[in-house]
């Protein structure tokens, strides 16, 4: 699940730790109401952690925070509006986030590696509350999509992406649902 709408929506929110709007928490709680899960795992950034805490309390299940589920760190661009970032540099990043990572920021391959590692440890029947970038990295790691293909998915705030994972020598996954 992607976290609810943050107080600083519309900005490049990577490691910026901002609050989630009350309506964003409500949207996540509503989206989780019909789901079956036995634990909640979340990014330790407040916009995910606060939504996850509310969901875990509603379902009376354990919550574990895991920083590997954080959003891509946008470095010196973090917390800024895209309009306040050099347009050519930003376009270069979107075209090649490994070769043109944000100044002082994280490379796409680093995000992908940490999310793939976290995904390997996810137990069945887990709800993960995270960020759009981490969700896209999970699609690449689990389903074998390339980075560009992962951008074909619209991942609005409080959306739920359900995956069935098969582990082993040739791990794979199946997308069961994507609900806005």
UniProtKB/TrEMBL annotation:
The record's listing under Gene3D superfamilies reads: Phosphoglycerate mutase-like
Q: Which domain of life is it from?
A: Bacteria
Protein name per the record:
Histidine phosphatase family protein
Q: Which organism is it from?
A: Sphingomonas desiccabilis
Starting at the broadest rank, the lineage of the source organism is: Bacteria, Pseudomonadati, Pseudomonadota, Alphaproteobacteria, Sphingomonadales
